[in-house]
Specification:
- This protein is α+β, with helices and mostly antiparallel strands.
- The chain has a domain of about 130 residues: Heat Shock Protein 90.
- It is built from seven helices and five strands.
- The chain has a five-stranded mixed beta sheet, covered by helices on one side.
- A hairpin with a 5-residue loop joins strand 4 and strand 5.
Amino acid sequence: MQKEKLDLILSIIAVSIFVLLLIVSAFFLFRIYLKRKNTLILEKQRMSIQFEQTLMSSKLEIQEQTFTYIGREIHDNIGQVLSLVRLNLNTLTTTTEEPKLNLMDELLGKAITDLRSLSHLLDTDYIRTEGWTTAVEKLFQDLDRSRKYLITTHIEEDLPVLDNEKSTILFRMIQEIVNNIIKHAAATEIDLEAEKKNNQIVIKIKDNGKGFDKAIASRGRGILNMESRSEMIDATINFDSHPGKGTLVTISINIKNNE
């Protein structure tokens, strides 16, 4: 009888240990499953992000090639034609029409200057050679000459140098922000500030226009493209805007790898 009780107890203990081992094994197998599942999800997300960045990079490369082609065509063809027109205009000697001729000469001179500036800002090689700060200063000088806006710029000297790709993408972002202000903001004042803060280049572009609702605009393709471009240059972009109160756009670029 005593032996039977002992055998029963041992059997219960053995079954309990077996069940416990099954539970522990199932737990570890479930953890392994979850870990592999999460790894696959992360890998899928990484591949998706990499694909989007590759696609964006290809689009930007095509865009830059197109801009460069247009810029050179403007400089080499249209600019030359206007210069020839101006040269021939200056050979005319009609005294009675001199005021008109002078006005035409002045307008042609302005058109040639504006086209030359536009061709430079479209030419990727110019941006890469001169740097994004020079291109931005030229962009804002052209805005100032238009006399449509009160322009204020402050670009800190000796900012860390960005590589060609980052420099080009950054300038195109600033160019797009300015174009959006011109097209949509109905602003009269545009301010730009660029400075180094800790391990970042911080660029702020502010206008006094009509602003927008961030909740609606954040779902738009324009802002999403800006955010994608920011990721490509290891930066963040923030839009601070309210209807009727203007807009402040802040681009913060990490520069640890550029110093």
